[in-house]
Design brief:
- There is one protein chain.
- By secondary structure, this protein is an alpha/beta fold.
- It has four domains: 4-102, no CATH class; 108-147; 156-237 and 359-395, Ribonuclease H-like superfamily/Ribonuclease H (Nucleotidyltransferase, domain 5, 2-Layer Sandwich), CATH 3.30.420.10; 239-356, no CATH class.
- Helix content is 48%, strand content 20%.
- The chain contains 15 helices and twelve strands.
- Strands 1, 2, 5, 6 and 7 form a five-stranded mixed beta sheet that branches. It has a five-stranded mixed beta sheet with strand order 10-9-8-11-12, with helices on both faces. Strands 3-4 form a two-stranded antiparallel sheet.
Length: 400
């Protein structure tokens, strides 16, 4: 396809306006090349000061555009430069792409639509480019949206740490409890990360002094960081983090009291689940395990009972429950469960704080699930920055 008709069609398709026009089109079944230029006598505006000049010279550049059917499509243009006495020789912007990139806006928009619907590697296959190209586009869009993120109304946050890959670098994740979106991530954990979060708040219309509640795990370094950087915040230990601690203890007790055969893996998974979420069949099997192995059975009961503290109608009955639980564990618990008891006892008030400001535990658990899913899909992102970009994109509710 070539000739004046093809030029006209592509001028329309690319929505080109004077002085831009399609000069030539070359097409095979595998590749379409569209050659674009500007009228020789056109005046062009200096991109810095806006003053209009005659064209000084031209630079040839090529951009990848969306495929035409099976054929990959490229736009090649002789881009004018002006010679501005004040600003120097400057290349003028082109209407189909942002500065410094080799892809058209249309290509980028299409890529974003695909990444929304499918894993990045799949989207890259569709677009006939490497995943790195799409990651670059995604990173640009996410960072741009993050720049304009408004955190002025954030008062309650959920704080957690994860790792980009098993055993690799830690990442601190902070979510806004009220809008249910991830608002901050940084490499590292503990007090330093909280300091960075405070700076991030200032940079996005927010204020660390507005944060009145932080829901987090039991790590000492977070505690120090919160006291230092979020001075007005109360701490609450939520069901998600408490269950995690109790499950870790249960898992240690289980591995010391190994059961034989295939039930082993099954058990590990089921015992960690919230008892309320088990099917009747699973409940029966766990009942059998408790009969077979009294040490493990007792530890399981203790874990389940601890988490029930969030199910009471008010703080005084919950508080009574915790006290009874502590004395039970103190009498009969395995050393690992006794250690949980000591932590619970030390943070008694911060755990019961939950009753003053009942945050949705479901949200916290759901959020963690989403992060785990992204991590699983993200095995292909050895780069932590890319991993964080992906999490922000999926769970940041950004205006992209
Ligand atoms: Zn100028």
């Amino acid at each position: 396809m070539s000739g004046p008709d093809a030029n006209k069609i592509f001028t329309t398709l690319l929505k080109l306006e004077e002085p831009w026009f399609v000069e030539n089109v070359e097409a095979t079944s595998e590749r379409v090349d569209v050659f674009v230029s500007t009228r020789a006598k056109a005046l062009v505006a200096c991109p810095v000061c806006g003053e209009r000049y005659r064209i000084h010279d031209r630079v040839e550049r090529t951009w990848r555009h969306s495929d035409m059917g099976e054929a990959e499509c490229f736009i090649t243009a002789r881009v004018p430069r002006c010679d501005c006495p004040r600003c120097g020789v400057k290349q003028i912007p082109v209407p189909w792409a942002r500065e410094f990139v080799g892809y058209t806006d249309y290509f980028e928009r299409r890529a974003m639509k695909l990444i929304e619907k499918m894993p990045l590697t799949k989207a890259a296959e569709f677009m006939h480019v490497s995943p790195d190209v799409l990651l670059g586009i995604l990173r640009y869009r996410v960072n741009k949206a993050l720049d304009s993120m408004d955190l002025s109304s954030v008062t309650r946050i959920f704080l957690d740490e994860t790792s980009s890959r098993r055993g690799h670098r830690y990442i601190t994740v902070i979510a806004d409890v009220d809008t249910k979106r991830i608002i901050f991530m940084t490499e590292g954990k503990g007090a330093d990360s909280l300091g960075k979060f405070a700076d991030w708040l200032y940079a996005h219309n927010g204020d660390p002094y507005n944060i009145r509640l932080v829901s987090c795990d039991f790590s000492k370094s977070f505690l120090a960081g919160i006291n230092e950087h979020l001075p007005r915040a109360d701490i609450v230990y939520d069901r998600f983090h408490l269950a995690k601690m109790a499950n870790d203890a249960l898992d240690k007790i289980r591995s010391r009291n190994q059961m034989n055969g295939s039930r082993h893996k099954w058990m590990r998974f089921k015992l960690m689940k919230n008892g309320k979420d088990l099917s009747d069949d699973d409940k029966r099997k766990i009942f059998d395990i408790k009969n077979d192995n009294s040490v493990l059975g007792l530890a399981y009961e203790m874990k389940e009972s601890l988490i029930q503290l969030y199910d009471y109608p008010d703080i005084s009955t919950a508080s009574e429950h915790v006290k009874q639980w502590l004395s039970w564990v103190d009498d009969e618990g395995e050393p690992q469960m006794k250690a949980v008891g000591r932590t619970v006892s030390r943070h008694f008030h911060k755990i019961l704080n939950w009753y003053h400001d009942k945050m949705s535990n479901g949200f916290l658990e759901g959020l963690n699930g989403m992060i785990q899913t992204t991590k699983r899909i993200g095995r292909g992102y050895p780069n932590t920055q890319n991993f964080m970009t992906m999490i922000f994109f999926r769970h940041g509710r950004l205006d992209i």
